Amino acid sequence: MPIRPKKKFGQNFLQNEHVIDRILAVADLSENDRVVEIGPGLGALTDRLLGTGAHLLAVEVDHDLAALLTERDDPNLKITTGDVLKLDWAALLPEPPYKLVANLPYNISSQILFKILDHRGLFSRLVLMFQKEVGDRLAAVPATRDYGILSVLMQTWYDVKRVVRVSPGSFYPPPKVESVVLQFDPLSESRFTIHNERVYRTLVRGAFTQRRKTIRNSLLASGWSAETIDRMLSANDIDPKRRGETLTLREFAELSNFLTD
Ligand code: SAM
Predict the structure, then answer these.
(1) What is the pTM of this model?
(2) How are strands ordered across the β-sheet holding 123-131?
(3) Most buried pick, 24, 32, 58, 189, via CB within 10 A?
(4) pLDDT at position 209, please?
């Protein structure tokens, strides 16, 4: 291996072609597609993505790896060197829709998801590898330990499916955790009508900030007045003693619409 994997960039390079086959099958690419890969690394997935004839933009923070990738000299490959969290996605991706396919750096996967949510309109499909615990959260249902802010937000705007579980031995170096690939297909509209997305996101965040508290106390701690909370919960027939983590997507939508209207 010419390059020593850098832990600070979450570098675990995929070495299992069967896993890449599954990712490719779900990404369903042709030469008409534009694809974005976050963190191409040594290029195992990159080469297979290019093999479909699709146009690929690869964003890599590690200058050494980006330099290695440029040696490919493929007209369909464009490389941007930089931190994907700091780049201006709207400027970088002027011709949507794109498919986003990546074995994500696990240390920043949640931040990447929030950024994806802020730029939902850019992507027609996401096929992403996560640490298994994060994947479990994204696909979780209400009233479970795994259900959290990103479960609600991602499921509000996407159909979320598990594609394949991936063992540590599929990577070099092997990570300490299991991994999972998930597929996200954008819904044409949010799953339940939401009148104001900002209010919805603030409410969801507030409901989960203190998981052990009741929904009433969590929202109080997040700054809403007792009067507003009590009116909202009673108008929507929600027991104030319930915990935020028991609320369904529909209930979050209804509560946020009450706050908006
Ligand atoms: N795609 C390769 C593979 O599957 O073998 C590498 C995946 S590795 C888990 C994550 C990759 O993301 C690394 O190449 C790492 O350098 C890159 N990376 C880490 N943080 C990044 C960031 N903020 N912006 C862009 N790329 C980043």
Answers:
(1) 0.96
(2) 77-81, 55-60, 34-38, 98-103, 123-131, 179-186, 158-166
(3) 58
(4) 87
Question: Ligand 1 in contact with 62 (CB < 6 A)?
Answer: yes
> Cβ(63)–Cβ(87) under 8 Å?
no
Which pLDDT does position 106 carry in this prediction? 95
Task: Write out residues in the chain with pLDDT < 70, as ranges.
Answer: 1-2
**Which residue, judged by its Cα, is nearest atom 18 of ligand 1?**
39
pLDDT of 211: 83
Out of 18, 62, 179, mutate this one to test ligand 1's pocket (max ligand atoms within 8 Å of CB): namely 62
Q: Is the CB of 135 under 6 A from ligand 1?
A: no
Residues 6+ apart with CB under 8 A from 123: 36, 96, 97, 98, 99, 100, 116, 186
CA of 104 to the centre of ligand 1 (A): 6
Q: What is the pLDDT of residue 210?
A: 86
Choice from 1, 50, 60, 83 to test ligand 1 binding pocket (greatest atom count within 8 A of CB): 60
> Omega into 173 within 30° of 0, i.e. cis?
yes
Question: Helix (H, G, I), strand (E, B), or coil: what is residue 13?
Answer: strand
CA dihedral 238, 244, 245, 246 (to 10 degrees): -10
Q: Does residue 96 have a cis peptide bond before it, meaning omega lies within 30 degrees of 0?
A: no
Distance 29 CA to ligand 1 centre (A): 21
All structural domains of the chain, each given as residue ranges with its CATH number in brackets, are 7-186 (3.40.50.150), 197-260 (1.10.8.100)
